[in-house]
Amino acid sequence: MTTALNAVERVLSVPDEQTRWDTYAPRYEQLLGADLTAEQVPAWLAEWSALDAEVGQAGNKLATHADLHTDDEAVQARYAKFLEEVSPQAQRAEQALTEKLLAVPGFAPAPDFALNYRRFRDAAALFREANVELGVTHEAQMNRHGVITGNQKVILNGEERTVPQAKQQMDSPDRAEREEAWRALAASNQGVAPALDALMLELIGTRQQLAWNADLPGYRDFIWRRLDRVDYTPQDCRAFHEAVREEVVPLAAEIMGGIAARLGLDRVRPWDYNRNNLLDPEGRASLKPFKTGAELEDLAQTAFEGLDGELAARFRSMRDGLLDLQSRPGKMTHAYCQYFPVQNEPFVLMNVVGTSEDVRVLFHEVGHAFHGFLSGQAQPLVWNRWSPIEFVEIPSMAMEFLTLDHLGHVFSPAELARYREKQLQGVVAFLPWAAQMDAFQHWLYAEAGENVTIADLDAKWLELDRTFHPFVNWDGLDESVRAKGWQYYHIFRAPFYYIEYAMCYLAAVGIWRGARQNPAQALSNYKASLRLGSTVPVPELYRAAGVDFRFDREHIRGLMAFLKEQLA
């Protein structure tokens, strides 16, 4: 454990000079002062890309280090200093460079840069000087969420636990134990709720002001442009919410009703429903295929070896400081994949406790890592790496499915059937949650009004939860607990980023459906689409992966029928 943590600390170390603006300023000034003709643009762009990668990598490493040490004031202060001193200056310089590029007479971008050239133009139009400093405030506010929740403790059975450790008991086949864990988690969440309420009001005000500074009526308009959502509209999202309500919620209710009946439960209570890991209908304990983060790495390595040699080699390279998997106090409780563009290295942070759900999440996050590796290898310009957010979850979610046939060393045939069933059930259970999260944010940032209160947020969440999870029975329980369901990571730290998970889960199911017929072709399509990075529009990325960019009702109905067939 100590050796692994030392490797992580080594990877995340950032020299002091890389935390100061004066380290980068001369290179920005040189780029800004260059005489630039259309013929000179490609070489100039390469220099700018390299500088952008260095600044971005320093910020990403400092942010990740802060998430690993939410209880270390010095670490938090170092990241805050970077946000205050480097980020605003870099934003201003990036805007100036963008304007310089757009003003070059006669420049026609190469096909692999045309899409990002258009994005540069649109981003330049959205830029406002007033939003530079306000953006620093916004980042600092969002970072406070990690501090609040990273230091959150749960008292369970008289012992202090981390949130992931307490959630593990929610998977117990013993209903009394589940309820005990649920109530302990609820008490812990209620303890931090006032701080998160206050933070959310600050964030809403800041986000409204960002929009107004950009001469836009509301934050949804602002973020829609900021996220470059050009392939679908808010009305399409509304239609998705409705499609999920009509086509998916009944199937989720049917699945949970069947599980409850087989377990002899009179109703499904909150402690009976974990969308990430539905109850076993035979009352068996959750699968626990490993004990330590190192064991999880080993079993994943073997799975990747069976799937694809190139991907296995990529994962092996991550095992020296690019994985931090174990849950521990002071560590932010979410899981994510970070990226260090200079070395083209992804970094995965998790909080594993030994469950099969941890196995799925690792494959998910490493799917992101493969995206970083392959797009970074294929695309020299930093802006051409990764992809638009409507595609970025496909590499991760598809990897959850593509590894299903390579886990014979982890599970017995019967256990693998259980794991596979959980994976398929998880898609059905996830879609109502995704629709609820997206619908809540559409309401919050386009309908609620600028004087929205916490009571309004609580009431709206209750309304949506009753719509998308009507099969969970809260009779006799304190619904103030239910009302705080909006206090979730993405609401605070990734606003309006959630429907993409649903889009990509639907696509991942499509990729798996193709893999059932031709696994080699499906894997080849998968890797080819990742290498395209951000050089082609979203619908073309989907086609390269072998699926359609669709999330309409007819499409969802067809995929639900396929999942129901597979579950049967």
Number of DSSP-assigned strands: 5
Mean of the pLDDT scores? 95
Instruction: Give helix and strand order, one letter per element, not per position.
Output: HHHHHHHEEHHHHHHHEEEHHHHHHHHHHH
Q: Helix content range of the residues, please?
A: 55-70%
N-to-C span: 42 Å
| Number of helices in the DSSP assignment | 25
- Look at the helices and sheets and give the structural class: mainly alpha
Strand order of the largest sheet: 3-5-4
Biggest sheet, open or closed, and with what strands and sense?
Answer: 3 strands, mixed
Inertia-based shape: globular
Strand content: under 5%
Low-confidence stretches: none
InterPro entries: Pept_M3A_M3B, Pept_M3A_M3B_dom
Keywords: Hydrolase, Metal-binding, Metalloprotease, Protease, Zinc
Family: Belongs to the peptidase M3 family.
Domain Peptidase M3A/M3B catalytic: 170-557
What does this structure look like?
The protein has 568 residues and is mostly helical. Helix content is 66%, strand content 4%. The protein has helices at 2-12, 21-33, 41-68, 73-85, 87-102, 111-126, 130-150, 163-168, 175-213, 219-226, 234-247, 249-263, 293-307, 309-318, 356-378, 389-392, 394-402, 413-446, 454-468, 479-483, 489-493, 499-517, 519-531, 538-544, 553-567, and strands at residues 154-156, 159-161, 323-326, 336-340, 345-352. Strand 1 (154-156) and strand 2 form a beta hairpin. Helix 22 (499-517) packs across helix 25 (553-567). The longest helix is centred in the middle third of the chain and has 39 residues, at 175-213. It is globular and about 75 Å long. The two termini are 42 Å apart. The mean pLDDT is 95.
